[in-house]
Amino acid sequence: STNIIAIVGRPNVGKSTLFNRLIGQRKAIMDNESGVTRDRSYGHGDWTGKYFTVIDTGGYVHGSEDIFEGEINKQVELAINEADVILFMVDVDAGVTSLDEEFANVLRRTDKPIYIVANKADTNARAHQMGEFYALGVGDEIFPVSSQNGSGTGDLLDAVVKHF
Ligand code: GDP
Ligand code: MG
């Protein structure tokens, strides 16, 4: 099997930070060939002896919070078409936003495994805020993680690699 993980979510939730953590010291491969493949990066990683490819979607304009319906659809379609497991990333500090809800609505189209990654759970207090994301109504499970300090990422990967 191909073992592909795609990370999706609105800008600034921490997708690229998690991507970099998952690929470690390995190099990301940029694919900027066409409008559809714009700004996606591929990298390779492994966890408990299982190898995977991870796709970081949605480079957009650096630092921009702007994102449009077309972009959401493209990003999620890519994930749905190519991934074996989808990581839907949200920000526990920001809570549920309308853009998160737009992503959730598009993600409902697939039966592929989806895990909500409740990122920026740097402290236990913040991790407890993950409960509000059940309201999004998608995802098989929610994992509080801090992509910045690494906490929770092991539990997330344990669940992900069970599909590989
Ligand atoms: P992306 O737009 O979804 O790819 O998000 P980035 O990975 O570029 O991160 C956006 C911002 O959130 C950056 O300033 C990161 O340093 C910050 N960030 C990412 N992960 C965490 C985290 O776990 N905790 C905190 N506090 N900040 C984070
Ligand atoms: Mg990014």
UniProtKB/TrEMBL annotation:
The lineage of its organism: Bacteria, Pseudomonadati, Bacteroidota, Cytophagia, Cytophagales. The chain holds residues 2 to 165 of 437 of the full protein. Keywords: GTP-binding, Hydrolase, Nucleotide-binding, Repeat, Ribosome biogenesis. The gene is der. Residues 3-164 form the EngA-type G domain. GTP 1 binds at residues 9-16, 56-60, 119-122. Coiled coil: none annotated. GTPase that plays an essential role in the late steps of ribosome biogenesis. It comes from Pontibacter silvestris. This is GTPase Der. Belongs to the TRAFAC class TrmE-Era-EngA-EngB-Septin-like GTPase superfamily. EngA (Der) GTPase family. GO terms for molecular function: hydrolase activity. Associates with the 50S ribosomal subunit.
